[in-house]
Amino acid sequence: MAGAWQFVDYRDYRYQARRVEVREADDAPVVRCELAVRSLVTAEGRHLVHKSVPREAGRVNPGLYLLLDREVRAGARLLRRFPADAYPAELSRMVGYDIDGEEPFVLVERYRGVPVADRAGQLLTEQQHAFAAGLFRALRLLEAAKLVHGGLTPDTVWWDDGRVQVGGFEHAVLIGEPRVRNGKSRWCSPAQHAAEGAASPADDLWSAGAVVLEAVTGEPPGSQPVPERFGAAVGELLAGVFAPAAADRPTAAELLSRLRAPDTVPERGDSAVRDFARSRARFDEVLVAKLAPPAAEPPPPPPEPPRPAWRLAVTAAVVVAALVVWVVLEVAR
User: Fold this and answer.
1) How far apart are alpha carbons 320 and 328 in whole angstroms?
2) Is 165 in the same domain as 198?
3) What predicted TM-score, i.e. pTM, was given to this entire model?
4) Which residues pair with 7 in a beta bridge?
5) Is Kinase tagged as a keyword (predicted)?
6) Is residue 100 domain-shared with residue 130, that is, in the same domain?
7) Which of 54, 86, 110 is the last residue of a domain?
């Protein structure tokens, strides 16, 4: 049963204030991530995914704020890089976010289809080709935006009857930034799992190769995948993808060439970054405040020293004398 309508205030990637009327959606897609997830629908029928950090969860695990931070930064960067009328279907699209409230959140357009984890081993031959081409094209687009996804798994890659969409940017960083540790070693290179060195598009190539293997074969990849074990075609496609050194792996463009798939990247979109710079500064300010330990309460003031006994005696004598004078004056009246 759908919930009541309510207004949600947020900011878009230009830091412009927005408001949308939403309610809980009747059908909630499966979104597997560490953030709290809700499925919403707007009054106009637009379906959204709401990811947030509940207050108590953030208190127990402050690292959740960093996951949300990366999702917002990546979403905003993609919106600036690609024009609104030609935004790539292979990448999830951020709607907006709010980081000022007690429970910060990000709004994303609903992912298309289902996580490929739910279709692993079930793709037909032509679907396998379309899946691999769509995934490597998504990586090509991320590279054009100077982003490394850092968290590609069968749960963050979605499949919709012939089309791929990549979402879940909670581990995304810019190319050249320090690698972010990823606990899902099954789908990431050893260097990324250990958070060693600088992030590279080759990190995503390793992860994408592991996802392709699982999608095609239905078998989870090992820490050292061997594509040739699954046939000559798979071996030829993924040759070099799992090379130990990132520099020895092919690029996404090379993988697309092997698949004879088109390799086109849209022209740059919005080049105005002033508003987003202001938004990012505000995001950093709020994030630091949320990650800071709670301020210690000030110590209670020291107790007043006890008054000497002679002072108490003098005070009592003065009070008694004043009382006697008052009585005498009253009698004299």
Assistant:
1) 12
2) yes
3) 0.81
4) 21
5) yes
6) no
7) 110
